[in-house]
């Protein structure tokens, strides 16, 4: 499978790709928080540029719904973290599923009814507005005030060292609760 993907890629391109991946893996080890934030923004805008390139450049469809997919994913990961205590790294997978499902629904409607051109742009921006109005009235996610996440201030970024939970919380989440419910309620 990988050989099929790399077929026809010049040797120089493979070396540059490996160098880029090594750089992306090692930068969080040595960079400060400001540099990591700037790099996250750079990579996010690279994602947006590639999404536009795929939709308009290859498919010829003008899509204005990218904010919807990013917003749905962000709300999914944040809600799982705040309301259920799910790690943001695991919530990232749920966010991808939610965003892909929304894209599949919009894509199905567009292909089913033959929506193309300017009408496809109107369809995507309409779904974005429907979602915005829905989230404005959904108090579980903060309503129109937005959704605020608890932030912990660390002296160093914690991308590679997540906060350690007590062992009894990890065991309880795995289905093996070593403590009675009353003691867990006061100590968890």
Q: Which SSEs are present, and which pair or pack?
A:
Elements lengths: L1 H5 L4 H20 L2 H26 L7 H19 L3 H25 L5 H19 L30 H7 L7 H7 L1
Helix pairs in contact: 4-5, 4-6
Task: Give a verbal description of the structure.
This protein has 188 residues and is mainly alpha-helical. Helix content is 68%, strand content 0%. The protein contains eight helices and no strands. Helix 4 runs antiparallel to helix 5 and helix 4 packs parallel to helix 6. Mean pLDDT is 80; it is low at 163-174 and 176-188.
Please state the average pLDDT score: 80
Major sheet characteristics: none
Give the class from helix and strand content and strand pairing.
Answer: mainly alpha
- The secondary-structure element order is HHHHHHHH
Count of separate DSSP helical elements: 8
Cα(first) to Cα(last) distance is: 45 Å
Outline type: flat
Sum this structure up briefly:
This protein has 188 residues and is mainly α.
Descriptors:
188 residues, mainly alpha, 8 helices, disordered C terminus
């Amino acid at each position: 499978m990988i050989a099929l993907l790399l077929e026809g890629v010049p040797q120089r391109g493979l070396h540059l790709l490996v160098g880029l991946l090594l750089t992306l893996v090692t930068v969080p080890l040595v960079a400060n928080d400001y540099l990591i934030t700037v790099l996250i923004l750079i990579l996010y805008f690279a994602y947006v540029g590639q999404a536009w390139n795929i939709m308009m450049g290859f498919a010829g469809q003008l899509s204005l719904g990218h904010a919807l997919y990013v917003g749905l994913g962000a709300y999914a990961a944040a809600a799982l973290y705040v309301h259920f205590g799910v790690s943001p790294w695991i919530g990232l997978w749920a966010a991808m599923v939610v965003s892909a499902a929304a894209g599949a629904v919009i894509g199905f409607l567009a292909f089913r009814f033959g929506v193309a051109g300017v009408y496809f742009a109107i369809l995507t921006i309409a779904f974005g507005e429907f979602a915005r109005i829905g989230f404005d009235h959904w108090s579980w996610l903060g309503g129109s005030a937005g959704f605020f996440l608890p932030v912990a201030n660390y002296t160093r970024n914690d991308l590679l060292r997540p906060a350690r939970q007590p062992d009894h919380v990890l065991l309880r989440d795995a289905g093996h609760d070593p403590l009675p419910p009353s003691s867990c309620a006061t100590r968890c």
